[in-house]
């Protein structure tokens, strides 16, 4: 068999790179656990970091220079969050005082799923809130709801993460964006 480029045999040909255009995004097996960790650190709805910046764990994580270790510490601070902290990004300074301006990070207030990996699939498991009335007619259907996340849905969440949040996670937005950890 001869190489179409060099007309050399298989022993003499150095090999050539190929390029495939995929019909839809898919998970890269080498980055699946890293993508899962990042997804567990950010809101599934608005892509803001779930951990509170004023929390001791978060402040300790920001002192770590190693990106992998920083991501692990922020993951520890974010794992316990079941809801994105709501609030508008407004100044919380009173007009009467001369205190420095403090902005809240904002957030959407959405409930956060528990994310897991099963093979090459990412699974989101939501816990439904029970209704206040315990009437038999108004009881919710199941207590938990599971759904498989498509790589496209995960990619959309990763693309919405701000550059500021990338830096807080220990990633360089110029060279290491999580949305590049998908095959497209």
From TrEMBL:
Chain intervals for the UniProt region annotation (Disordered): 81-110
UniProt cross-references to InterPro entries, sorted A to Z: DNA-dir_RpoC_beta_prime, RNA_pol_Rpb1_1, RNA_pol_Rpb1_clamp_domain
Enzyme class: transferase
Domain RNA polymerase Rpb1: 2-181
Keyword Lipid metabolism: no
Keywords recorded for this protein, A-Z: DNA-directed RNA polymerase, Nucleotidyltransferase, Transcription, Transferase
Full protein name: DNA-directed RNA polymerase
């Amino acid at each position: 068999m001869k190489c179409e480029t060099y007309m050399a045999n298989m022993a003499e040909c150095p090999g050539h790179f190929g390029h495939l255009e995929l019909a839809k995004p898919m998970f890269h097996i080498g980055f699946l656990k890293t993508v899962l960790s990042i997804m567990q650190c950010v809101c599934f709805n608005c892509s803001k970091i779930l951990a509170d910046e004023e929390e001791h764990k978060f402040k300790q994580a920001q002192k770590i220079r190693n990106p992998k270790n920083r991501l692990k510490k922020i993951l520890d601070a974010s794992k316990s969050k079941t809801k994105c902290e709501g609030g508008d990004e407004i100044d919380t300074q009173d007009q009467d005082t001369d205190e420095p301006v403090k902005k809240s990070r904002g957030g959407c207030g959405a409930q956060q799923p528990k994310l897991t990996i099963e093979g090459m699939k990412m699974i989101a498991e939501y816990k439904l809130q029970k209704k206040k009335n315990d009437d038999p007619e108004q009881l919710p259907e199941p207590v938990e709801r599971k759904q498989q996340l498509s790589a496209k849905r995960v990619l959309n969440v990763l693309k919405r993460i701000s550059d500021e949040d990338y830096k807080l996670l220990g990633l360089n937005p110029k060279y290491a964006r999580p949305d590049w950890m998908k095959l497209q």
